[in-house]
Amino acid sequence: MKRIIPVTILVIILISISSLIGDETKCSYVFQLHKQKKFSFLPKIDSFSLLAADDTKGSTRTMQSNADYNFYIKRFPQITKDLIQQFSFEKKDLYAFSLKIPPDLFLISKNKKDYSKTAQEIAGMNATVWVFNRYIMKEAWTNISLKSILSNLKSGFTWDIDKYLTNQLGHPYHGALHYSSARANKLNYFESTICSFLGSIMWEFFLESEGTQYNRPSSNDLMMNTLGGMTLGELLFRTADLVVDESSRGLERVLRESLAFLINPAYGFRAFTGEAFKIGNPPKKHYYSLRFPFGAYRSSLNNKPSFLIAANLEYKDFLKKDLLKINPYDWFTLECRLGFSNEGLRDKEIFTTGILTGKKLKNGLAGLFGIFDYIDTYAADKISAVGVGPGLVTMSSSDSDLFFNSSGVLSLIMGGSSPSFDVEYSHFGKRVNDPYYLGPGILGRINLELGKKNLGSIRTGFSQYWVHSILSHANEFLGILSCSLQCDLSRRSQISLGYDYYLRHATLQEQRFTGTKPTVRALYILKF
Q1: Which CATH number does 288-527 carry?
Q2: Which SS3 state, helix, strand or coil, does residue 294 take?
Q3: CA-CA distance, 459 to 229, in Å (whole number)?
Q4: E strand or H helix that includes residue 190
Q5: Left if phi > 0, otherwise alpha if psi is -120 to 50, otherwise beta: which for 113?
Q6: Do 496 and 486 meet the contact criterion of CB atoms below 8 Å apart?
Q7: pTM of the entire structure?
Q8: Which phi-psi region, left, alpha or beta, contains residue 295 (left: φ > 0; alpha: ψ -120 to 50)?
Q9: Nearest to 213 by CA among 164, 161, 149
Q10: How many whole angstroms separate alpha carbon 176 and alpha carbon 264?
Q11: What is the per-residue pLDDT across 486-512, written as a single tens digit (0 to 9) for each?
């Protein structure tokens, strides 16, 4: 019973704080009835208004009904068409009309920020993780009480030397789920990032007992949760949103909702609120390309081929012609790779880049980009990066079906890296025999692609990581050079041959280390 009390207290605190943030912003669909059969349409980013024509004073465009009493908007901008396809005027009542997207009735919704629901969901999410660790994993640090909370508040923050997977992937992912919950409740990017921070504060002070010096509130956990929400949260939110279709029914609806949950577990709250079962609006149109590569690869460390499966997503909503401004992650790339050997799952790689804010150019984007990378492989060892920096994206094509795409970013990062030197007391992860350095650094990355439509392309890329250890002043550098050739087999498939070259360099006082590891791969790719 005592363990439930702190969770309940925090929920109440978060709900109270939400009322201090400000009034909930309402952005609703507004209708004004009129006897005439002519209306004006005011397109906005998140809303639209129907006004009588004589009230608009010529400031808006009007729609005139046809003989079937439908108001078509074929000549309107794409942003308008994404909201509604046609109006249908009901003749039964001169003062009423219905808004339809054939064949179903368009369900009018309200964009309403819900801070209280966000607080409840984040508290519930944290409590669920705590219950799993307490009763399934039986972790000692889950023995919380009022005494442990007061002790955490008194002791303050320290560095958490937990294992690489937990600190460099688990905590950023946890922060991304906090962020996604806030975004699902209509909070904006910055408000959702703050929710990642507050959700981490709750976890560090209320749901972990101090026990030993290693379980005190962690400053790097707080940092990684917040940065993970900032750089990974919107990406996961938008990726899961590509799957959801509230107008679908039956088995298709179940499969879509289940897949959205797997991509982003924060979508699980839709089942509790009933949103996962309600018939709603069709999804808005999005621009993206999705590829699923799979095949074999071999590194210099292993003479036997290993099996690789991957997923590559490029999200390109910035290409919408009527986009008024660049929103966070209107463009992003996500690449996930899993490598299997005789030992099972051994290689894990995640690479992401997405725009946070910037300007749309004639053939691309320029602005500030977020980065989240996680690498744990035989060839590269361990290295991770989460950060923000300037970048540029270009996309161009010619009348002869030739195309050229490029992207580049230079980012300040907080990163982790496996040590090239065996120094017993100067790195993290000592408790679980999983040593790694942690500290600030820089990531530079550039990707180029030249190809011809329906034929294939040549891709090359280079990434340079630098991580400076905050404890031992060691410096770890990793350069990754990649080249690949893609040949189209059909509209939906490709084959790819690739070569990756890993160069690791490290320094620690007078010590120097250099190592190289090449990898070759042959893949079959499904395109969507």
Answers
A1: 2.40.160.40
A2: strand
A3: 30
A4: helix 189-206
A5: beta
A6: yes
A7: 0.79
A8: left
A9: 161
A10: 9
A11: 999 999 999 999 999 999 999 998 899
